[in-house]
Amino acid sequence: MTTAPGRAGAHRLVAESPGFALAKLRVGGAAWDWRPDHEEEHVKAVRFDHYGGPEVLEVREVERPVPAPGEVLVGVKAAAINPGEIAIREGLLESRWPTTFPCGEGSDLAGVVVELGSAVSGFADGDAVLGWTSSRASHAEFVAVPADQITAKPEQISWEVAGSLFVAPLAAYASVNAVAPQAGEVVVVSGAAGGVGSIAVQLAVRTGATVIGLASERNHDWLRSRGVVPVVYGEGQAERIRAAAGGRLDAFVDTFGGGYVDLAIELGIPVERINTIIDYAAVERLGVRGEGTHTVDRIEVVREIVEMVADGSVEVPIAATFPLSDVREAYRELAQRKTHGKIVLLP
Ligand SMILES: NC(=O)c1ccc[n+]([C@@H]2O[C@H](COP(=O)([O-])OP(=O)(O)OC[C@H]3O[C@@H](n4cnc5c(N)ncnc54)[C@H](OP(=O)(O)O)[C@@H]3O)[C@@H](O)[C@H]2O)c1
């Protein structure tokens, strides 16, 4: 890799891979183009022009983002996808988070710093980083992100895991903290093998509580391997949970919705020890807690997660990876709601 000064005095990295070999060297106003202009300025990003199913998603050539002051331009290596992005794309969250079209998508990201905006310190061209954007923009080859929303990627964390360390882990972190399990208590987690649940169960185990994870049979071995007591969900689950709990039930983390808050109430768990990241009607109706990613979206929390993943105490299972061009397929798979861990795009 070599470096070259970029736009507005920013420093740009010129990498050897074709995706990055877009060098335009400017010295004292002079410029030498090594590749035609259109190749330099246009990069690939996911866009959609109206609400709908995965078929509205397109990978388009867009202008390469320019980092504003305080921002860093990241060449994205991995960016996880999340069910919330499906809800946004289908228009279900219009009243809460309105959309302007054409719209991009994606929050989680990991990649390599390729350009620094002014007033950025602590990062250099070529740094491997992970973090998030709040601009629906990470499902792209390049994304400009505020420097206080990224942190160093430890070498031992793979790109696909690094690109998954925001939405789901922070929702898990918020959920578990909200119900504050104590050593010796029993906590139940619904959707225990999913993107959020698979991390929530591990964070809950670390508190010393007994953790019951609701999941399909095929995920039980993994749950056991992480110290979780697996229970099959569906008909008769209340009895199975009581039997597995051995006499006490203290807290409930709902990562799936669809009636699990009511189940928790039925099991006698107090409302202040129940958290849901999806059933906001139940939060209104019953006064349970509704803490999620948005309540803990601070870089310090991301760093805490990164440490736990780097030292192996928390595992982030990767269900599948897809090239950016297969973004529709990636979301079709996620929409099945059978994912164990994360699905990740590799732009
Ligand atoms: N508020 C927030 O901050 C926040 C943040 C992230 C996500 N969310 C929301 O939280 C939910 C979970 O997100 P996610 O990324 O974990 O989703 P996900 O990865 O798609 O969840 C898949 C999991 O759902 C489980 N599942 C399917 N049907 C189920 C049922 N009837 N009962 C219990 N579990 C069932 C599956 O379990 P088996 O495979 O074991 O059957 C699978 O492991 C989504 O609705 C998402 O929008 C909210």
Care to describe what's here?
- Helices cover 25% and strands 26% of the residues.
- Helix 4 (167-179) crosses helix 5.
- The protein has helices at 37-41, 83-89, 159-162, 167-179, 197-205, 220-225, 237-245, 260-266, 280-286, 299-310, 327-334, and strands spanning 2-5, 11-14, 24-27, 30-33, 42-47, 58-63, 71-80, 108-116, 128-132, 142-146, 150-152, 186-190, 210-214, 229-231, 251-254, 274-276, 318-323, 342-346.
- Residues 1-39 have low confidence and may be disordered.
- Strands 7, 8, 9, 10, 11, 17 and 18 form a seven-stranded mixed beta sheet that branches. Strands 14-13-12-15-16 form a five-stranded parallel beta sheet, sandwiched between helices.
- Strand 15, helix 8 (260-266) and strand 16 (274-276) form a beta-alpha-beta unit.
- The chain is α/β, with parallel strands linked by helices.
- The protein starts with a strand and ends with a strand.
- The chain has three domains: 2-39, no CATH class; 43-164 and 317-346, Medium-chain alcohol dehydrogenases, catalytic domain (Quinone Oxidoreductase, Chain A, domain 1, Alpha-Beta Complex); 168-295, 3-Layer(aba) Sandwich (Rossmann fold), CATH 3.40.50.
- The structure holds NADP nicotinamide-adenine-dinucleotide phosphate.
- NADP nicotinamide-adenine-dinucleotide phosphate binds at residues 82-84, 167-168, 171, 190-191, 193-197, 214-216, 219, 233, 255-258, 277-278, 292-294, 334, 337-340.
